[in-house]
Amino acid sequence: MSGKQPKYIFVTGGVLSGVGKGITAASIGNILKARGLSVNIQKCDPYLNVDAGTLNPGEHGECFVTVDGAETDLDLGHYERFMDIELKQSSAVISGSVMSEVIADERAGKYLGKTVQIIPHVTNVIIERIKKAAEGFDVHIVEIGGTVGDYEGLSFVEAIRELSVQVGRDNAAFVHVVYLPFLGASKELKTKPAQNAVRDLRGLGIVPDVLVARSEEDAESDVVEKLSLFSGVPKEAVITLPNAETIYEVPLTLQRRGIGQVLADRLNVASSTADLKDWEKIVQKAKDTNAPTVNVGVVAKYLNNEDTYMSVFEALMSAGWANDVQVNLEWIDAEEISQDTVAEKLKGVDGIVVPGGFGERGVEGMIIAATYAMREKIPYLGICLGLQVAVIAAARGAGVVAANSTEFDVGTKEPVISTMEDQKGKEATGGTMRLGDYETIIQKDTLAEKVYGANSVFERHRHRYECNNDYRDQYESWGIRIAGLSPDGNLVEMIDAPGHPFFLAAQSHPEFDSRPGKPWPFFNGFIASLK
Length: 531
Known about the structure:
Rossmann fold; 531 residues; 2 domains; seven-stranded parallel sheet; alpha/beta; globular
């Protein structure tokens, strides 16, 4: 079908936020890919930020980075993992970026004196970005962030309504994800909030073709009949989706309940029966309660919710399944680690992970944790900031007691970590980092070479500070070694520690490349060392 009119699937949500639109959209993509279709996917966010790079991870979860350096919502991570694809900047559309384009065009006189309005000028930009991302694919899935009825999201809802009219009824389908609350007093699932959510959507000119009803427990058949009656959605297109033991079970549930065939029929798209055998194996591994457990201590600073390290969490779990173990993650507040508490805080962990982050808060605890891992020979995995604190820890342990990063102490006398030369003098916070895919040349006879089994690797980056080259010749005396360099040899990309059971840290974020069933070597090697 490539080269023909793409089919569009628009995923919206009602009742409340966090209802599961992202997992639903990713699961639909998973199923349609398994039916032999070429599928792309896109997230439209209503926030007035230009990108997700400056959003608080405690509120919004991790910032996911694409291969071409876009800082995006964490849902793109779900999309990539569920669909085993690499997305680009075009898969992330956010209001601030759209508004910036419209205002720039107005200042440049491109509207020829017309009054610039939400409709049609803002909606036209949204439509064009959606159409551009859909080019060359059989099916393009678009998730609209937020909840239908939110003021900031109305331009996106109007844009997909207009686009559905442009491409025609046979080329666009709407999937509305709603929530069914359970009332303990009457012991029943209530459909009224879902009914109201459908009415809100219809009031904006969109009639859903598929209703995905989320709930804590599975819904009875009479609930489906009631939802169908009051929403106008055929019973076979009302898909109930109870909580699952693992999010990776969702595609299997949706497949069993027929969503793939409903959408294929609705869009009149020829496809084969979905083959999800490999996905079933992943779910079996994820649910294997008989597998031995390894305990991984994650020493971190953003502990509001686990979404702040979503990709790290998923990469570790996937590596566990590949090694026939379950990974028990112990979240350890870096601010609570001191020289006096480190042994107690890390007691019982088989391995230590220090993930990425920004700012001074909690860093001393991370440095102490890295020092402890070196001294006690506990397997250590450092991600971005985790590499930087490891270098600082090694330096201090070797007597360079003032070692620090200029990020945490601008006036440090021993800046073993410092700002990149081409970033010095820049004051803006957004868009001043090394972002996206960069190549690492893996050094011979290192742990990195053993783990990756290759002489180079491309991994995604998101950071502003680098290892200071003035100190590189001291690494060996500190007990660490350069395990990976940039192609020009100018930037330290990985380090390890000779003689240590497993000590590996990367300046990159390898978690963004890991997939269920295809764990990234960085994590696979670490988990294998814990068995």
